[in-house]
Task: structure prediction
Amino acid sequence: MKICWANTENFDESNVVILGVPDESKSHSLRKGTSEAPHRIREISNIRDTYKRDNQTSAGFPLGGINKKVYDYGNILKTEVNDAIGKIISKSKIPITIGGDHSISTEIIKSLSKKYGPISLVYFDAHPDFISSSSGYYGSVLHDILPYIDIKSSVQIGIRTPEQEEMDNIKKYNLSVITPLDILRNGIVKISDTILDKIGKSVYVSVDMDAIDPAYAPGVSVPVPLGLGNLEVSYILKSIASKGNIVGLDIMEVCPSYDIKDRTSHLASRMIAELISSLNDT
Ligand SMILES: [Mn+2]
Result:
């Protein structure tokens, strides 16, 4: 099944490419099932945003999305990520990847950096994923990608449950961190402007859905209360997308088997549409 906003069968004419990676082999979570997310998020998009009349089918896009050409690449293995991302970005298309566990982002960022050099990373997560005493799993993403990102122009948003080792690494590498309480204190517009000022010319956005409050996103592997609001995350995403520097995005860690009435897949799919609609025309 394709995401409902896929409006071209022609890879070459697309601006945006949706890619699923149903792999959770590097999750340590007790809650399993993120490999079901690529299918479920696509399915939910069709159930909600597809309209059928007179044997015609059309999809409801958020304002501004109508002129984008979206191609759904289907699902791939994690070992195929490097080649697929390489193919997509060689034509300057924007890959939007649906996971799977968060360690998939490591492979994507490695691949992107071959073309774009050090990447500005905007990383939404409740957890810093900055363990360095172990590597190659969903808790070590930040440390694993250090050679491929420009840490000065990178930022983590939504962080609220770091381990001591991760706090030490955040300090050691001088990584910017924005907590949910920072947004409450300063307001979303000011925080968003701070992020826009910080990021560089090749920006990758990685969204662990657990950055968002479990009230909006209960179906994740590791839910942590007191998270970001759904509109706050969408506002930041859309602001970055309108700036025009996004080279790719992912949505990770949706766990459909723990969801409540598919609330998390609804939000994830809608965030993808909102993001596409805000991308600057290329
Ligand atoms: Mn994560």
